[in-house]
Design a protein that fits this description.
It is a single chain. Helix content is about 35%, strand content about 5%. Helix 4 (about 125-140) runs parallel beside helix 6. The protein has helices spanning about 5-20, 35-40, 60, 125-140, 145-150, 170-190, 195-200; strands at about 90-95, 110-115. It starts with 6 loop residues before the first helix and ends with a helix. The protein has about 200 residues and is mainly alpha-helical. It is built from 7 helices and 2 strands; from the N terminus they run H-H-H-E-E-H-H-H-H.
């Protein structure tokens, strides 16, 4: 389940308790680095399952050789199964792409997804508020660069302000900046009809 204090360890224990209504038995628990756990998984088999919490594609998995298919099986998550109902109040689900792990997968499948939040204190000092506003503005303005040149995970990110769960609110100063930036981006985007050639090539609809 990952080393003590890691995200993987927290996810493993939270999911297990939610799905089986009990903690992981101590005799079955382990807190190893992913590499060490994988070696035990296919070596002495003293580990049954390894939880990897990472953005897609995770180098630990994408760098595996095709021969690893004989020993490694990526477990699917069924969001429609009754045991998934409670976990989906905390987590969501996402698609693992075969293109991310061509040496292991032949088709996409569904897994558990963990949301990421940028959290701030409700600052009133204008100096600090100004820094946070500039950060939000820079994030929005440089978002295309992050998607083009950053970690592949950025390509899955949608810069928007979706509804939040109970008890969560957006920080008003940064929210205003992002909304203003998104509005400007939409205004700059030219709208024109696609040519027949572009539609045939799939460049636009």
């Amino acid at each position: 389940g990952g080393v003590l204090g890691s995200g993987a360890a927290l996810i493993t224990h939270t999911l297990y308790r939610m799905m089986f209504n009990a903690p992981i038995p101590e005799a079955n628990d382990s807190f190893l680095e992913n590499q060490d756990a994988l070696v035990k998984l296919i070596g002495d088999k003293s580990v049954d399952v390894v939880v990897v919490a990472a953005g897609q594609p995770a180098p630990l998995i994408s760098n595996m050789k095709p021969e690893a298919q004989k020993f490694i099986k990526l477990l699917k998550f069924d969001p429609t199964h009754p045991s998934s109902k409670l976990p989906l109040t905390v987590y969501s689900y996402s698609t693992v792409l075969a293109s991310s792990y061509p040496n292991l997968l032949k088709e996409d499948f569904t897994t558990v997804a963990v949301g990421a939040f940028l959290v701030t204190y409700d600052y009133n000092l204008q100096f600090t508020v100004g820094h946070l506003m500039r950060f939000a503005r820079s994030l929005c303005q440089n978002f295309p660069t992050l998607q083009a040149q950053g970690h592949p995970k950025w390509r899955e990110v949608n810069l928007s302000l979706p509804a939040l769960g109970p008890g969560w609110i957006y920080y008003p100063p940064t929210t205003r900046e992002i909304r203003a930036c998104l509005a400007k981006t939409k205004q700059k985007t030219p709208t024109r009809k696609c040519s027949a050639e572009e539609r045939i090539l799939g460049f636009c609809n």
